Amino acid sequence: MEWKRWKSLKGVGTSKTLQKIVIAFILTFVCARCSGGAYISQQKGGGFRRSSSSEDGEKSTNRPPILYMGSKFIYQDISLSDGKTCRVTMEVKEKKNFEHKQAYWIEVIGHQMDYFNIYDMNLNWIGLFGDGKELETAEPCLQIFKWPLRIGEKWNSRYTLRDFSDRPHGVYLRDSKIDVNIRAYEEVRVPAGTFKALRIQAGAEIFWYAPSIGWIVKEELSFNSKNKSILELLEYDIPKNA
Fold it and tell me: So what's the architecture of 2-237 in CATH?
């Protein structure tokens, strides 16, 4: 399981750990680096469609979206350091409790990985679940979304990261903080189309949230000048009854 690479973050310093944790919030490509993966085509159509039931972008920044079961988002994950590209799929599977909170369970499938990212009803990351057990939790949450979303608003997300992945040696705890800044509402083009999106910076990561579909359409992460990753939405499907 690719999530095991998280163990290597222990002891590398809080700043680098937080960069990885921010990706964990959206976790469409945390540890999703492709080891020799093949290039993929930018597929369009094939049964995937733009949802016609979404709210107007400006209005839907006032409250969190409702994620419908069966909604699917497919991305291409590009490593600019070596040019490798792989495909990552996220699917909304369930809405049930996690750590005594109602939450969305979203399955993440990619190169040699299959696990669940867990988000509260405000779309803030609260946990990672795989192999039938909790692996990571954030208490109270990693707050990347603070509703209503307003351009120029800044805040610090403070939380305690709990890592259960190395259970024989106990639970690893770290009190953490990350700075979040909603910088702009702008047009962004990805293989799935052109979207009006909020550009949000959280630590070393920048991502674009498109209110029209209620999810992320693009992410960029720079560990350093030579190590940068880009995630772009290829296709998505929101059920017709949504």
Answer: Beta Barrel (2.40)
